[in-house]
Amino acid sequence: MTTAIDTPQDQGFRLSQLIYDTRYRSITIQVIAMLAFMFIAAFLVRNTITNLANLGKEIDFGFLFNPANYDINQRLIEYDSTSTNLRAAMVGLLNTLLVAFMGCILATVVGVVAGVLRLSKNWLISKLMTVYVETFRNIPVVIWIIATMAVLSEALPQPRAFRGETPSASMWLWDSVAVTNRGTYIPAPVWGPGSVFVVLVFLLSLLAIWAFNRYAHRRFEATGQILPKFWINLAILFVPTLLVFFLLGRPIGLDLPALKGFNFQGGTMLRNPMLALWLALSFYTGAFIAEIVRSGILAISKGQSEAAFALGLRPSRTMNLVILPQALRVIIPPLISQFLNLTKNSSLALAVGYQDLRATLGGTTMNNTGRELECMLLMMLIYLVVSLFISSGMNIYNKSVKLKER
Amino acid sequence: MSQAIEREIDRSHMTVSDEVAIQISNMNKWYGEFHVLRDINLTVNRGERIVIAGPSGSGKSTMIRCINRLEEHQQGKIIVDGTELTSDLKNIDKIRSEVGMCFQHFNLFPHLTILENCTLAPMWVRKIPKREAEETAMHFLEKVKIPDQAHKYPGMLSGGQQQRVAIARSLCMKPRIMLFDEPTSALDPEMIKEVLDTMIELAEEGMTMLCVTHEMGFARQVANRVIFMDQGQIVEQNEPEEFFNNPKSERTKLFLSQILGH
Amino acid sequence: MSQAIEREIDRSHMTVSDEVAIQISNMNKWYGEFHVLRDINLTVNRGERIVIAGPSGSGKSTMIRCINRLEEHQQGKIIVDGTELTSDLKNIDKIRSEVGMCFQHFNLFPHLTILENCTLAPMWVRKIPKREAEETAMHFLEKVKIPDQAHKYPGMLSGGQQQRVAIARSLCMKPRIMLFDEPTSALDPEMIKEVLDTMIELAEEGMTMLCVTHEMGFARQVANRVIFMDQGQIVEQNEPEEFFNNPKSERTKLFLSQILGH
Amino acid sequence: QDSSTLAAVKERGVLKCGVNPGTPGFAAPDASGKFVGFDVDVCRAVAAAIFGDSEAVEYTPLTSAVRFTALASGEVDMLARNTTWTFSRDVDLKNTFVGVNYYDGQGFMVPKDLGVSSAKELSGATVCIETGTTTELNLADYFRVNNMDYEPVPVESFTEAQNQFLAGACDVYTTDASALAASRASFENPEGYVVLPEIISKEPLGPLVRHGDDNWGDVVRWSLNAMIAAEEYGVTSANAAELAKGTDNPEINRLLGVEGELGAMLGLDNAWALNILTQVGNYGESFEKNIGENTPVGLARGLNAQWTEGGLIYSPPFR
Amino acid sequence: MSSQNTPLAYVRKEMLEQQPAPRGQVGVAKWMRENLFSGWFNTALTLVSIYVIYSLLKAVLPWAFGGVWTADSLQECRTILNDLHGNTHYACWAVINERWNQIVYGTFFPSSEYWRTHIAFVLLILAILPVLFDALPRKMLWITAVYPFLMVWLIWGGTIWGPVSVALGFVLAYMASQFAGRSLGSGLTGLIAVAVALIWWFFIGPSVTSGLNKVLPLLHLQEIQSRELGGFVICVIIGVSGIALSLPIGIVLALGRQSDLLIVKTICVGFIEFIRGVPLITLLFTASLLLNYFLPPGTEFDLTLRVIVMVTLFSSAYMAEVIRGGLAALPKGQYEAADALGLDYWKAQRLIIMPQALKISIPGIVNTFIGLFKDTTLVFFIGIFDMLAAAQAIRANSAWNGITWELYIFIGLIFWICCFAMSRYSQWLERKLRTDHR
Ligand SMILES: Nc1ncnc2c1ncn2[C@@H]1O[C@H](COP(=O)(O)OP(=O)(O)OP(=O)(O)O)[C@@H](O)[C@H]1O
Ligand SMILES: Nc1ncnc2c1ncn2[C@@H]1O[C@H](COP(=O)(O)OP(=O)(O)OP(=O)(O)O)[C@@H](O)[C@H]1O
Ligand SMILES: NC(=O)CC[C@H](N)C(=O)O
Ligand SMILES: [Mg+2]
Ligand SMILES: [Mg+2]
Q1: Does A25 or A36 have the greater pLDDT score?
Q2: pTM of the model as a whole
Q3: Contact B30 E26 (CB under 8 A)
């Protein structure tokens, strides 16, 4: 064998290394990317500044503390037309969150039911669910929202249809619920003296349920006995509260809606825009959730349930102890991104005049104050924060349930 | 795998009693139009170790799955431990808790630790306190030689270890009969040995066993009867020696020539 | 597998030239804090056939992956065919097109046919016209004895066939050096033979080869040098006869006793 | 501003004009999809002044809530979109209102069978209201001051408001009285609805442009004034060409470019006003054609009569 | 050993034949029993669903099929229905008939130019087909390549030079890359190609085009403003452009996100997370109302183009995530094998990684496409006259005041057909690819 060949001399740094040397190359690329990014950012910012200067405007968030001067029909917190724009934005944000939250719940219920039924051995019902899923998810949600709204406001009776000797419409459920083309009026609780106790007892019984379940679990582990948890829970939930309610002489009354003047008065009004948005979003998202649930359950192999059966576990226990815990891992991440989508889609409130964040901060406030840049940025930021909040929840969950493998 | 069987097996405990453990008479089963099991008659006494062989699709799995009602039969009778299998849920529960089953693909529950896999059914079906169930589980895990894996998850174990956990899991229900459906065919050769060793130990303790397998070494040394199935029928049954050395039916001869030849 | 080697091997062409093909000097590599390769010195002449052995985790793969810069080394020098491996992309490209590599898991491109697998790199790296590239490819596919599979997809081939395609794919780049990383360890015994045969043929033609393998039969008959690695270091190297019959180091003895014993 | 709007418009060859998406009589697409109406005529007048072609307009339908943003960001060159001239819109929102083409006030419309005859009886009513309008703010004030409560039903656009109102989703529809009339006129059964007598605000409606480009503001302002002045002087689309040959009224001569260089001062052709008048017509003509008493909208001149007729419409002199 | 009484040995003398299953095991009876009436719960479900289906059909079928197809107003429609059925509880499909043009082309599209959209649509199908089905002759891909420019010309009108000039930019870029590719690495080549194209598009091209327009106004079509586009046409334009553009951008973003260059990665992650975190509608508002703030004073930027850009960016962020999943699913060995063969980063991506990653991600990609296509309805809110706007205008018109179901059902149906076809296609493709190489 010969001796080593002459090694190339180290020539120090050459310019071509910026392109051909892997060490410098990555730096080169990053520097170019950074420069490009900064250039674009600077370009946009500079343009914005000149444009604003030309208009004689400047970025200023002071308008948030000026009176808003307009009314919002659905308010979860105190608000009137003399409140500030900031408060109006808060009212809007709460409305967004409200409809998103209720939507997530209903969508989950609808989706889980439809997803499970789609797997049903019952041919008819599974086909029916397939039709539901395919119809809803292949048609844009805006159309669902607008169509639902159109139907609610055109097919339902007007309040005045309830009036007169022979009204053409009547209330439901022993005259406690009125469904009109403006909204649905339902009874609202009236908190009389002593109602605090009822609420307190109710909260206590929630606590008791938690305690009972812990006890039941311990007892099960210790003795192997399984208590009829469901019925006992139900009893704990209602019996003490009802008992106190009647003992105290029914302190919580109901404020029933009644036709007075132009509209129904009393009770709580669920406005049609909200109903339309809520229903449409829920059923639309529900169709996606149904698919997620279905594929989640299908992802658990048949072997798992057979193994459980072979061990003597009943179908319901197999579902609870073996299938669901595994399916949930598959289901929850896409489920949460559906929640995210639903929350973002709630901005389509625009289509029906539901006064959400977009309608207040990004709508009337923006228009009245002329602070479009500020309002838009703020609005995007709020949505972004909400989204990141939801998705970080998902990440935490994902980490906690990751299957241990080698 | 032939290694696995090469040790001297103690057949002294492997007594077969008179008591009938499983009785199948004139059992027929169809999948739709397809007649899978045809007129099966089989009596298994307590303590018997039966190996079921046969070509693919001959209905071996279907038959043993009928025994713990993972499949429903349509004609005839299956009586397990004195209880007839009907669609009566109580009977099914009873039988399932007396018959253990091991699958080809183990089917461990991946979201539970090994120990939890083993205690799940005793706690929820037999209503045994957790403490006690864990003790039993550890006992059987020791028996299959993996007590140290108790707190791992199935995904962290090798195939052979998983199959042994599956056996331990069945044993925790203290079954009187064990069914094995090709328990080693998803495994690498070394792992097969581990599992067969465990099964041989079980056999030595006198467990009634039905085992679908093509490990002829195992059949030869452990089984007291080999059943050959084809086209949904029991074509031949005999003691292992006779079966391998002196098959009667043409089908059996053909089959044996194939599997022993290669 | 010993079968594979039992034929008479024609060593006449397997001449070793004076020219240096690979020179590694004082090479060190770390994974984070972990010192995987420690002070490696190795000179490979053109035409040498080197087998690298050693326990798992000893850094065999890492070392040969450094030679075509799938891994980066941090100290020392690697000179392949007169070109030093630095982070200069041009050098890397040059070396990679002269060094062929076969992986344990073949890593064929499943979306391309066998032929496309073989012509891809010549066409895109060497910029050879398609026609010509296909001719070369067919030539090498014939050499590895699977020209008839040319239009199939990798998924349709057996493991042994896939590994031979992988070899052919490397050869199509007309490399001057071939690296093999346990090319047979993912294969069934019968398939191992096919692959080893192909490698022997290559050796006979005078290809410079570095091969990580535990096929000691192969090492004995084809290699002109065996290198034993442990804990990231070259512990011993020698001619095969000497290496197997008369190992010097304790580690080597221990290792040989294990792999030859079982 | 470094690039003047007028230059940009000339360069582009069309005027981008923000209009109402659909208020019959004021701005709405006709059967062939072309925008027509009283407000649209202002856009056409400006285009005629600049290009000599009243069709060189690209109409951008804008809802009330986005109109100022669109104007400020340069999306449109001007708005002619029944927009009320208010202090804050002028000063704080940095707009320049160049004049008033319709003096209006906010009214209420209700179905006749509701039996309401005064706005004071509306306590508890559900009111359809376009978001981002002065009327939304006036409504809030009016009900608060009068200690009445109401349920606002916010809607995005005039058409949507109309749909909701007709469907009975609200009892009352409130907006500028002119728009109420336009809306009512488009109903299948206009007699079923009444406009209440109260007018609760002043709504001087006019075209506007961005702050900061006075020259451009002048172009729009004087295009409107040309129409108004022409009516006052009796110049119509029919006689404008004839009069442009020269008259003994120097004001008309200056207006029609026979005398003086008014057009050039604006940076336009001297025949700018002539083009407006021949192609669009004078204020009165536009009024009568689009919203006057012989149209479905059927508005009387009222406040919008020439000052000489006792109205408020008054153009500064062309001198 | 087993000296017991059981006669162990047993040999079957003759084989049994297949026997027909006992009754109740086969046929309709069994099917019904198993699929509809197994157990009381299932039976209840069946009965409930039969009732639901029955009442749905009973409500919908007569309504839909008893409808009127020709009338000029709701009034007339109702009169006809009254004559026919004695009541008006029937559909009035006439609205679709009468307002067809408005729904399909939008209110402002000049009717004399409808033929252009027809040609564009037919060509679109011809351009898409070879992409969808690789059994078709590969030559047809030329139509696909030329189509974008043809479509722009057909829809927006003007002379042919504008689109030709844009296309020329691509050709120049390609030539530059071929030229540079001989001597330089492909990363750099790409940069040069992009630079050449940009220089052409922004500096040289426009003047050449306007010159040619004056000198040689070839194939001049009546110009149509973006504002005049509407109805189904605008939906298809935005949807198809978005779909075609979001895939490449999504790929680039996914690669950026997977890259180990920290800055590139951070920028990509930031972009993706921002886009995915805000509702599309806010982005559209930004595009339509605020964009001019960010551009140099006086810039004109076509609205449709802006919307396409926003919709594209929006779905490319989702696309990036889908493709990232596909990339992650590829074994590391594929990257290594490509490296070992001497393929550089871009070639490895193009020839080895992307073909496989994209294949894995097909369902996700098509779902993103479907989402994008559905999202085109949102342009309604920024004043583009799409089908929803048409529906609103029709409903506000006194002739059709009061119509709801018919319009939304029709629009919904159009979307349903498109989206359902897409999802079916993706399932078909998935199945085909799965069996292809095995
Ligand atoms: N659910 C089913 N529906 C219809 N036919 C089935 C079903 N399960 C099994 N079969 C058919 O029944 C026959 C017997 O199947 P079985 O699984 O019992 O065979 P096997 O003897 O276990 O074969 P292998 O050795 O391959 O496991 C086969 O022909 C199979 O195709
Ligand atoms: N990417 C990595 N990061 C950190 N450590 C690594 C990495 N790759 C390999 N190692 C470690 O480096 C050591 C050498 O690995 P290498 O793969 O070279 O061993 P080997 O000799 O090829 O073993 P085997 O026979 O199992 O393939 C091992 O201890 C391994 O754990
Ligand atoms: N209805 C409208 O769009 C305009 C309302 C009112 N004139 C305003 O400018 O705010
Ligand atoms: Mg089987
Ligand atoms: Mg290795």
Answers
A1: A36
A2: 0.88
A3: yes
